[in-house]
Amino acid sequence: MLLALVTAAQPPTLSLDQFLAQVEQRFPKLIGAEAERLAVSAKRQAKEGAFDPQLSLGTESLRYNSASSRGKAAAGASNELGVEVATPYGLKLAAGRTWNAGSVKSPSSATGSDGSYFLYARYPLARGGGINEKAAGLSQARLAEPAATVSVAGLRQSTLLEAAQAYFDWAGAVQKLQVAQKLLDVGVFRATGLKKELEKGLQAAITITEAEAEVERRRANQIKAQRDVEKAALKLSKFAWDGSDPRSLAPTALELPTPLAPQALPEALARAQEQRPELKLVALQTESVRIDGRLAQNDLKPSVDLVFSPGTDLGDKGVGGTYKFGVTASIPLYQNDAKGRREEARQKEQKLTREAELLQRTIELEVRDATSALQRAHERFVAAQERYEKTKKVEEGELKLFQAGLGTLFLVNQREQATAEAASLVIDIQVEYAQAQAAFRAAQMGF
Fold first, then answer.
1. Which DSSP state fits 2?
2. pLDDT band for position 150 (cuts 50, 70, 90)
3. Predicted local confidence at residue 108, as pLDDT
4. Which of 358, 336, 351, 340 lies closest to 285 in space, CA to CA?
5. What is the pLDDT of residue 102?
6. Which of 17, 103, 280, 398 is the least buried, fewest Cβ under 10 Å from its Cβ?
7. Which H helix or E strand runs over 392?
8. C-alpha closest to that of 242 among 178, 303, 163, 165
9. Has residue 34 got a pLDDT over 90?
10. Burial 258-296, CB ≥16 within 10 A → b, else e
11. Which residues form a coiled coil (predicted)?
């Protein structure tokens, strides 16, 4: 019969939730992913810099040969102060002041004594209107921020799933070690008792030899189980970055498998399709590609810019109101660049559409697979638990026969080994169920 272990001091317990909280806070890969997400935000800020207002100030002094009085030196000074801003819609605005003194070189540079104040606007009527390269870059940088966020969410989910699987492997190994240790303790206890009976002449020497051989076999199994625990603990240490050693801790008991509710599958499918980051990421990538397509389509248009700059010239010899109005146009003879980029964007969007369809199917299959694993693990657990109970009863009956002198030590050992194997199978199924449950949670972003 398997005896309960009696220990003087139990090691501290580490629950799954405690472990996953440590992983989320300290795992380098997750910390690095968050840094990468912040870098994406910094890139968006850099793209916004293309539309920062610009303050310009210029001054120059000239001495040159006068065109109107050749051979006579002329001197002048030219100054300008202005603010310019570009908008994502292509409109450029500016305001400023120019003031010149002396004999300026160009009549168009002349101002009254108080200078000339002006406003300036340039708006693209075709190419560059509504969308342009800088505006497209900013829009895509803004899309990259939520894309980075959902990517971090996906990495977090996969990391926590991997950590949970490792935790359950460790928990199962610890419980199987306990089974092996109990079996060894029973063997040692029995061998000790039989030696005392041998001294009283109540047992044959061959029986003691058999008992001792069984102890060594069980000791070897216990050592292997100890190695399995150490291996699982080292695997768990990959995720433990709080300075603790899993080998000095104990896991919580594995959950008993229970059947899934009938509505669990449809609810999980709906939640997974809504929450999974892969689908959100593809949707954001599609929108980014569409921006490339719109920019390429816009670049097929001719460049037609409207320029208008009203102003006023003040002071001595000032002329009052001034203005500049005009239209500039440029028509490309070939459009291979824009056409190629437009077709590239169209094909990329087609590819992403197919990827979204595949992801939807893959996510559905993941949820169904995890559901199937949970259901079958529960069914196997019921059968394995029933087997364990029956083998335990057979073991207890065989031990009573041996104690009454009607059985053999060999059969007692066989019955105890069968009970231990049945107990280990129950633990394996509990691990399988726990890991399937973790996969079921991760499939619907449940961590």
1. P
2. very high
3. 60
4. 351
5. 75
6. 17
7. helix 336-403
8. 163
9. yes
10. eebeeeebeebbeebeebbbbbbbbbbbbebbbbbbbbb
11. 335-362
